[in-house]
Amino acid sequence: MRTVALPWDLGHATPLDATQTCDWILGPARTSSRPSILGNLNLHALHLTLEPGPVRELTARSDVILIDGWPILLLAKMSSPKSGWPTTRERIGSTDWLAELLARDPAITVVAVGGTPETAEKMARHVKTHTRSIRWHHFDGYRFSRAAESTGPDVLTDTLAGADLVLVGLGMPRQEKWILDHLELIAPGAVIANVGGCFDYFAGTQRLAPRWMGRIGLEWLFRLAHSPRRLAKRYLVEPLVLISRLVRRGVRRHD
């Protein structure tokens, strides 16, 4: 599988679009002798990978690292041969590939962990309404109680053992720590992914930015306008801190 190195030793990414991501989940990953990790990299995640912690560890252990955000796409283009440049269609968020997976409606067992009890209920209802074959089990991110619209056992650990795909949306870095702590419970051939707040968008508890804004790199502005308190530091402060750290790293290397 093609990977792209990021400049300044910032790691690498896997330029896949939504279709290719679903193909991997339903194909090669299913034949693995261990659980596969589907990671993603946006600017906030990149910032967290510069310090020891669960985000850095999970990113390093990921089998696939999706390009989630324009800054990562631009970084990937900086160090890639022209013929191998990632394209805008390979900049995808969790909502993009999960929407495609739901549309395909494969006969797989999905365990979702995260969101408020309200979000878990609404997300499970959305899946039940729009699919026929997917077996969906949703546990909220507070009490880890199973949503009423889900099916299967109430005990989370028992449900994880039978999953083909595990989606964890608890926010960074909590979701990455949760995945690392529960990885041994996941069966070989299953995929586990950190998906942030994507459940909220399907459940309708958060608004998804218009897709045209994502195509031109302004999705962050839409999110900031709708959640300024929660996202101001991430979108306005962290990029400056990241740039400062990268400049200092470059200076040290030239000393």
Notes on the structure:
This protein is α/β, with parallel strands linked by helices and 255 residues long. The chain has 2 domains: 4-208, no CATH class; 219-254, no CATH class. It has helices at residues 18-26, 43-49, 54-61, 70-78, 94-104, 117-130, 156-161, 174-182, 198-203, 211-215, 219-226, 228-254; strands spanning 4-5, 12-13, 36-41, 64-67, 109-114, 135-139, 165-169, 191-194. It has a 6-stranded parallel beta sheet with strand order 4-3-8-7-5-6, with helices on both faces. Helix 8 (174-182) links the parallel strand 7 and strand 8 (191-194). It is globular, with a radius of gyration of 18 Å.
Averaged pLDDT: 87
What's the helical proportion of residues? 40-55%
Number of strands: 8
Strand order of the largest sheet: 4-3-8-7-5-6
The number of domains is 2
The string of secondary-structure elements, in order, is EEHEHHEHHEHEHEHEHHHH
The outline comes out as globular
Oligomer: single chain
Structural class: alpha/beta
Count of helical segments?
A: 12
Q: Please outline the major beta sheet.
A: 6 strands, parallel
End-to-end C-alpha gap: 37 Å
Task: Flag low-confidence runs.
Answer: none
Beta percentage is 5-15%
